Amino acid sequence: MAKKITPRSKDYSRWYTDVIQQAELADYAPVKGCMVVRPYGYALWENIKDGLDRRFKATGHVNAYFPLFIPMSFLQKEAEHVEGFSPELAVVTYGGGKELEEPLVVRPTSETIIGHMYAQWVRSYRDLPILINQWANVVRWEMRTRLFLRTTEFLWQEGHTVHATYEEAQEETLRMLDVYADFAENDAAIPVIKGRKSESEKFAGADTSYSIEAMMGDKRALQAGTSHNLGQNFARAFEIKYLDQNNELQYGWTTSWGVSWRILGAVVMVHGDDQGLVLPPKLAPYQVVIVPIWRSEDEKAQVLEATGRVKAALTDVRVKVDDREEYSPGWKFNEWEMRGVPLRIEIGPRDVAVGQVVLARRDIAGDKSVVPISELARRVPQMLTVIQADMLERARQFQKENTYQPTTYEELKEAVAKGFALAYWCGDPECEAKVKDETKATTRCIPLDQGGVGPGRCAICGKEATERAIFARAY
Amino acid sequence: MAKKITPRSKDYSRWYTDVIQQAELADYAPVKGCMVVRPYGYALWENIKDGLDRRFKATGHVNAYFPLFIPMSFLQKEAEHVEGFSPELAVVTYGGGKELEEPLVVRPTSETIIGHMYAQWVRSYRDLPILINQWANVVRWEMRTRLFLRTTEFLWQEGHTVHATYEEAQEETLRMLDVYADFAENDAAIPVIKGRKSESEKFAGADTSYSIEAMMGDKRALQAGTSHNLGQNFARAFEIKYLDQNNELQYGWTTSWGVSWRILGAVVMVHGDDQGLVLPPKLAPYQVVIVPIWRSEDEKAQVLEATGRVKAALTDVRVKVDDREEYSPGWKFNEWEMRGVPLRIEIGPRDVAVGQVVLARRDIAGDKSVVPISELARRVPQMLTVIQADMLERARQFQKENTYQPTTYEELKEAVAKGFALAYWCGDPECEAKVKDETKATTRCIPLDQGGVGPGRCAICGKEATERAIFARAY
């Protein structure tokens, strides 16, 4: 079965779907809007999970698990929350052959049921902070879906914390935003802009939402993680109260933050090319693929022996040996390029004779080098580090080149047609709505780092503005 | 809040719930039959997952993820399967505010939807075997629930494989049964009996089901894992076909196998005592708790300095230091005993002065030894290994002592009232039903290891019997 990937320039969206299906990351499920994550995609997701989970634990968080089903009445306790999520709910009305007295919602997010439990667990200031994360599936009924980016069911992590003060909750909210940015840049090689969401774009029930925003290969934005300061909204709705040091009852302050498998879609779109996936070494299921090349049985024995030695030397590297007989070396080169393996090692009989191999980088087409076998244990990890850094740098450069700083509405319209617009915005929702209506671009976030510039004039209405926002068309 | 655990002798079932709630493994959820796994319980579950996942990968399996929702029509494709699961289904009838045309079932197990996908992925014998596992939540509407053992929603893993021949499928079925037994005995310190399920107890849709059965502290049985040879039942229902080496179309042979968080309940019941949990070192979230003891500030500084050194020396051990000021050493001893930490290290000022600490084993009441600090890095891992082995051996002894070999129906009735009965059974479902009706004991399994005995007489009807079965009351 010959595999063909639509070129990005021809149809970016088709390219994305082709890459995901042909690299066997995922497949469409026979349930509307749902997806199957295939083993290669799941191995990538496992590495993403590990990278995040390690960071959560290093910042004092623990994992737990809360129920899939939430009584409908729970959602109704927080007015904005239920309004935001009602249109997206999947509802269980029958259980064990009987109609349920109260319908159960399949969790779209878990602030409500976790809030209910926290109200029982928190008694005194000594119980705070509560710093819990869960890895779970959630369901949001989506009209238009796209593999990984927007699916009815998706896998994610959701952190839910309770603090004694506003300040601590705010500190946590920003800490987790930093954790997400650190993961995105250092593990996924995706440069991100950390910022505050506008009122219209914030999470239903939050006081303030923050996000990390990344630029995809087609210059559109993708929100890759969010962190919310929920104020006392859920604490009041669910009665999360604690006795403070003066023995007075206080409401807690809560946060929530989440990253889903959509970040896997971002990895595809930020780094991929017309040959397929390009995976950052830290996340790649296989960091190195070894393709042994032989014609005769004699050659085969020699080459496979050398292959075994090379694999054994690469102790801390995730190595795949592709010694299948039914495919040619050329076919294998294409296959593993399409699957984005960062480094390929080619070993042929002449290489074995002189004790060397050919190393080919996936991220730079045609970049091949010849390395003595005795050097591989040192050189391969080095090259993986270089590839990881280069991928981040290239993505950073791409984002920079395609970010504009329009000062007039005309310039802004031009900018969002071809990339990100970093523009002064007065904060008026009407200006935001106008841009959205006329260009389909939305405010992605108001960057925390404003670049040291002072106040200016709103690029839309010309009124005074204290901050700049990122406007872009988004996934 | 003083914690009290009901003694096992008074009310075993209450003891079990007390231990789980007070050790903060889990809590009841506000949704009927559902449960919240708290951080300490989840850390235990993570270790269980790791132990199993490592073994799955070592036997060539990979992970993937399939959808939560299954079209109702899929379940109906396999007649026995739908009959078995229909009474337990949770059904989504509304999505995105609209009534669905076809109701969606929340997966009770995933043979059907995975079978549907496999039918698309399998083309030729070269694609076989498919060896996929998924970690997921499933839902079965249960009338009477019990924490971890029987909950409406539960976490588990389900392996689903496709093979070219019956023999390979059977080999896989038994391989995974061995993997489960290996995990149960070596990580969970739970001795298990591997065996075949009777026709009436097998999985709905399987040709043959196998299980591992363990004896709990109240001498009842618990099925801790199952492995099914599904024959061609699901391959035919979902059209999983492949071209064989002769280019002829053949149906595949499938297996499925699963372990859920119920095995965590088994860990509680096999090892726990009236003080609470006793956790096997390989699974314990904390293998060692260090309790520093001081009265004056001077002593505190010395003791905490030594505590730091001890913790630093125990590099490959999961160590918790409990240096909280608001609790007394005695309170902490009780707390961590209740939570089942295998080893406690006590460090007081006199210990520091002479360079030693006190080590207390959780599994043997009153077992304390004095060990030089300089020896700890060697002795602690040793003791953990000893504890792990001793726990398995004690559980094995307990199982042996409470397993009887009745030859008459009267003896069998007596045996199942006080433990396991290993008895000849002719295989007639009527004999099985009679035992169940009159004693509530069921056939747990027909052990693969029959102990080298020949044929005998059915303990129930006296007819000829070729095999012995385990009869017991079960969870």
Explain the overall architecture.
Two copies of one chain form a homodimer. Chain A has 475 residues and is α+β, with helices and mostly antiparallel strands. Chain A has three domains: 12-271, Bira Bifunctional Protein, Domain 2 (BirA Bifunctional Protein, domain 2); 288-384, Anticodon-binding domain (Rossmann fold, 3-Layer(aba) Sandwich), CATH 3.40.50.800; 405-472, 2-Layer Sandwich (Translation Initiation Factor IF3), CATH 3.30.110. Helices cover 36% and strands 27% of the residues of chain A. Chain A has helices spanning 12-22, 39-58, 72-75, 79-85, 111-121, 166-186, 233-238, 262-271, 297-313, 329-338, 349-354, 376-401, 409-418, 429-439, and strands spanning 26-28, 35-37, 62-63, 69-71, 90-95, 98-106, 130-139, 153-163, 193-196, 208-215, 221-229, 241-243, 249-251, 253-260, 288-292, 319-321, 343-347, 356-361, 368-372, 403-404, 420-425, 442-447, 456-457, 464-465, 467-472. In chain A, strand 1 and strand 2 form a beta hairpin. In chain A, helix 2 crosses helix 6. The longest helix of chain A is centred in the last third of the chain and has 26 residues, at 376-401. Chain A is globular and about 80 Å long. The mean pLDDT of chain A is 96.
Q: Which runs of chain A of at least 5 residues are low in confidence (pLDDT < 50)?
A: none
Compute the gyration radius of chain A: what is it?
A: 25 Å
What is the total tally of β strands of chain A?
25
The CATH class of the largest domain in chain A, by name, is Alpha Beta
Kindly report the average pLDDT value of chain A: 96
The CATH superfamily of the largest domain in chain A is known as: Bira Bifunctional Protein, Domain 2
Question: What's the CATH architecture of the largest domain in chain A?
Answer: 2-Layer Sandwich
**Distance N to C terminus of chain A:** 31 Å
Total domain units of chain A: 3
Shape of chain A: globular
Helix proportion of chain A = 25-40%
Largest interface: A-B, 58 and 58 residues
Could you give a short account of the major beta sheet of chain A?
A: 11 strands, mixed
Q: Kindly report the oligomeric state of this protein.
A: homodimer
How many helices of chain A? The count is: 14
- For the largest beta sheet of chain A, what order do the strands appear in spatially? 3-7-8-14-11-10-9-22-25-21-20
Assign the structural class of chain A, choosing from mainly alpha, mainly beta, alpha/beta, alpha+beta, or little secondary structure: alpha+beta
Q: Assign the CATH topology of the largest domain in chain A.
A: BirA Bifunctional Protein, domain 2
